[in-house]
Structure formats: C-alpha cells, structure tokens
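Handout, section B. The chain below has 723 residues.
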Amino acid sequence: LPVEGRGRADTARSATGATAMAEAIREYRSHLATAGLSSRSPVMRFRTWKLFLALFVEALWLGYWFPAAILGTLFHIVPFVITRALARKLQDGPTTTALARLGLGLPIYALWYVGAWWAIGSYFLPWVAWTVVSLMPLAGIFALTYAHRSRDICRNWLQQMRALMRPGPLRELREEQGNLRGKLRGFVAEYARAFPSLDEKPQIISWRRRVKVTLRWAAIAVAAAGIFVWQNWFFASRGPGEQMSGLNLAAMSTNSLDAALRADERTLHDLMSSVREMEARAAGLQAEFTSGRRNYYTQADNDAIRQAMFSYLACRTTLLGLVWKYQKHTEVSDERLRWRAFLVSFASASAISDSSLKLVTRFAPYPAAVRKLNEADAAWGLPPGAFDMVRRNLVHSQTRELMEQSLAMYRSADATLARLDLVNPSPFDLFHETIRRHAESRNDLLSLLAESRVADPLKEAGRTTRGVTYRGQAFVSTWLGNTRFRQPRDGELMIRPAQLSEFRAKLKPGDILIERQNWFLSRAFMPGYWAHAAIYVGTTNDLARLGLDRDPRVLAHWKKYAARNAEGHEHLVLEAVPQGVRITTLEHCIGVADSAAVLRPRISESEVRESIARAFTHLGKSYDFDFDFFSSDKIVCTELVYRSYDGCLQFSLVDVMGRKTLPPTELVRKFVAERGRPQAQLECVCFLDGDELRGQAAFKNEEAFVNTLQRPGLMLFPVAKDN
C-alpha cells in the first residue's frame, strides 16, 4: 500500500539519521576526550562570566569544606595506612585485595575508635569523646568524597585552562556542540510529529526545577508570614485603645462639679506650660545627640533621655486622666459646666495629640533614638516599647474617630462658648490655643497615618524576626556558657578556702572583680583570657559606713542583700550573669573560679558611694545576649561595671562583630595602658593565678597579671607557668 510504503521509508530514514547522529555524538565525545574535556566541563556548558562564576563556586566549595575534610583525614590516616599496607601484603588480586581491606579494616578501625574514645575520654568529659567518635565516621566518608572531588576539580581546571589558552580548537568544539544540539532538536520535533498522541513528557528533575520549587515554597512561606504579621498589626491598630472610667458627672452637685472643674482647669493650665517646657528640652536633647555632644553609651546621657521620656509619660498620664474623667460631659445638666467639662476633656486630648505628634516626628528619623526611647527601665518606671505605644495610640482608629467628633462639636459651638464667656478668660484662652494647634496639625497626623500603614507591618515583621533570632542566640550563648568539656581533679576547686579568705581580706567596697573558669565551650569565643567581671559591694556594715543604708536605691534591695544564701554565706557581690543581674556571694563568684584578680578604682569615697548605689539600680535587669552596650534595659557583666562607674572611670568601648562592647580583658588592657602613670585610674590589688598542671591557684605578682593579656581564651593543653 502507498501509505504503508511511505511509513516504511520514513522509518528507514529515521533509523539512518539516528545511526548518523549516534556516530556524530561518538565523534564529538572523542574530540572532547582528545582535548581533555567532557560534555559536563564548565568550559563547554558556560560562557564568559557564567564560566568564571562556575569555577569560583567550585573553588569556594573546596575552601569552605577543607577544614572538615582535613579533620576527617587526620583522624583516619593511621588506620587507613595500616589497612592498605597489610592488605597489599596479604593479597595481590584486585578483588581479593578489596576483600582483604574490608576484613582487616573492620577490626583495625574498631580498635582505633575504641582507643580514640578512651584517649579523649581520659582527658575531656565523656560527652566530648562520644561526640567525636559519633561524628568522625561521617567526617571520614566526607574526606574520601572531598579527595575525589578535589582531584576531579583540579584536573578539570587544568584541562579547561588549557582549552581557554587554545581558542581555535575550543571554538571548533563549541560549534560542533551547537550543531549537535540543533540536530537533536530536529529529532525531537520529528518525534513529536510522528507520535502526536504521546502528550506526556518525561519528568526530568533538574537543579533549576528544584531551585524554582524551593523559591516558590519560600515565597509562599514569606507571604504567609507577611499576612500573619499584617493581620496582627491591623487588629492591634483597631483594638480597644486606652480607656479609663470617668466620673459620674450626672450625680454630682453643681457646687461639687464646679469645684472639681476649677481644680482641674488650673492643673491643665499648669500641665500645658510644663508640656511646652518639656518639648523645648526634648528638642535641645535631640539636637545634642545628633551633633555628637551626647551619646547613648554614657550613663549620664542615658539618664537624660530616660528623664525626658519619664516626664513626657507622666504629663501624658495626667492629661489622659482628665480626658476620661470628663468623658461623660453630655450628662451634665448645667450648660456652662457641661461646656467647661468638654473643654477640659478636649483640650487635654489635644495636648496629648499635639505633644505625641511632636515627639514622634522629632525622634522617628533617628533609629538610635527610637530604640533608646523604647527601652524599659524599672528604675525610671518606663515600660518596654513606650515610644511605639505613643505612636500606635496616636494613629489608633478609635482615637482618631473620637478626636474628629470632638473637633466637629467644638467648631459648631463657637457662638455658645462666646455666649457662656468660655473663650477669652484665663485659662480658657490657653485651652483654645491648644485645640487650634491640634487642628492645624491634622495634615501631619494624616501623613503619619499613611506612613504607618506601610511601615508598621514591616517593623512588626522585623521585631518578630529579631525576637526569634535573639531567643535562639540566648539559648546558644547560655548552652555554651554552661557546658564544660573537661573537669580535671574530679571537680576539686583551684582556689582553696584559705586563699579565698586571704583574697577577701584584701577587698574594699567598690573593687572590680575579674575572674575566669577554664574548660567551658564559651571560652573559644571570648576575645581574651578573662571571662567575667563583677563589683564587690561589701558587707552591710560596709554599706552603712558609706551611708548607703539610707540611700533609697540600696534600701529597695536591703532585705535581700542582708540575708545569707542557703549555704550561710554573706552576699557581697553584684554581677550580671545569663540569669540576670543579681546579688551573689564571694564563694560563688570567685570561689569557683580558676583565676581571679582585683582592680581597684582610684576614685574618692563619695564616688565609690555613688557608683555602688548606681549598681544597685541595675538589679533585676535581664542579661544582654546581644552584648551591645547601646541598650541599658539588658546588660552584661562588664556593662554593670561600665554603667556603675560612668563619670568616674573612662572606659574605651571596642567594636566586636559590629557592636560596641567591653570584654573583661579590656579592663586589664586599660590597667596595663595606664600603669605607672599619675593619671592611672585602676590599680591591681591582687592576682590569684590557677595552674592546671599543679591543680591549684597561687598568688602572683603584678607582672604575671600583666602577662595574662598574652594568654588565649581557650587553652586545650595547658603549659607550665612561671612562679
């Protein structure tokens, strides 16, 4: 039949073409092999920048995984060499050699791992030995993979560099590759025409598809998180605002209400004057911070901004009380009293709105100022997120609706207020001026509202992310700080009780204690030898002698400080630890240390008194796992020293991972830098140096203390120390 004949002819042509194509591919591969390349070589798959990017990624992979590979290699090199050497001597054939390696390798590697576990466990704690022998098999397998991969990569680099140095043959290979691709695409099209019913194509899972799927799911996750954050912000901005119960004005007599209004009108008049003064001080404060005359790291400047926020919140709270006190003004039967109550309520609300708007617009462009204004401080009675609370309530839907209704009511009552003589007399003139200022600032408020609708959900997402990150960071830091990897002498303390008694006898209130405990994982991340700092406050008799038993900052904690701990030891020290800023004993702070020293500030007794009192104000604060001295609502051990002695001692903060901080070793560095000078601010009182080889501490001279600057933070294998 004619149709069948054409079909057989097409099939024959296709078979011939396929045979020719297969031969062309074999020839192409032969050309690649001659050039030392393959179809997977980057020089054949990529051009220009993509080629160099592929080579750079390979180099990056080799460099990144090199430490893991070298670790696995070094750990297994001995059993590996022994196994291969014995296997070669016992058997010669390739198959029997492989079996011999397997038969010999299992017991040799098992013995090696047992020996490694025993050797590591005899020096370090058992969990370290178990961790090493559990991870090393993976490291060994990876080392073999790395060796093969690095060999192939290096060989490919050499071959590709040779190809790049010979552009003519490389161009011919690429042209041949392009021709083959064109022919293969023709085969695909012909196949589709011959078999149109086979619509389903084979699913090829490539890395590009995996990336697309991963990105798609990541985008879905980000979108879901964004919707969740936006939803929280949306309902928070429309939830119930600040509300208080007001007076039952309808039940009050005319005389009682008149007396209450007279008193509150005077209060409101005085508050408005105070608010203006406060706004002027805030403007000056902001200018000083912006110009650099003040900074957020000193305690005095920190207190200045705390004072400003505290004053504002105090005025705001009083004004808010007046707003809600007269919220039911419509229930008052006497017309003049009713409008007086309205003016007090609306003028108070206008003062809050105007001052809040000025606070927000003045400080919002400066993220550092906003961060500082949002910090909590129990000593000042400041809640966390105070600035954000003010901003949120300023644009709150219920607040704006109430203000719009009140403004409309006020504008419709011009004639009534004039008839009742509630316009010009004092203090009403000031009330009207405040209301007019609020009305004039409505455009600024609308701009802030539009901005908040876009920015606030993003800020909420940022806060959520930072919160999760901080909690993870706190967990890791706490685990590193609490985890020992070695405990020599069965846990016997390096500092003996007699030495601790001698150490205590040298102390005076206000001394700075620095100490170190060996064999904790966190020491690997400490910038220097010393790990902790604290303040020796002294006994209750010492505090009384300084007059601190009458200081309210100390009295708030007196009962707890005067009590002894469960072991009957006196509380003598203030320190910041992962559990927070706390009162502790010398036995717990220094008695458990391996090395300890005392630095005494060279300041007057009055400065010591003030510094100790200031240290007590930080009790109860959380530990700052960001180790950032910018914030003062959470602090670290040296920050307690830094903020307590602010103004008396000058400490230079250092940048560690982008944060201003003060590692304990920097206290020693300050002492060494000023040593022997008349203006030196610190003196070394004593130094107890722990010697791991001897198993106990000993008092050393000042020169030995100075030399601790040269010691590393982590010493896996201690060396002998000079006497």
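Note. The first strand starts at residue 512 and ends at 516. Compare this with the example in section A.
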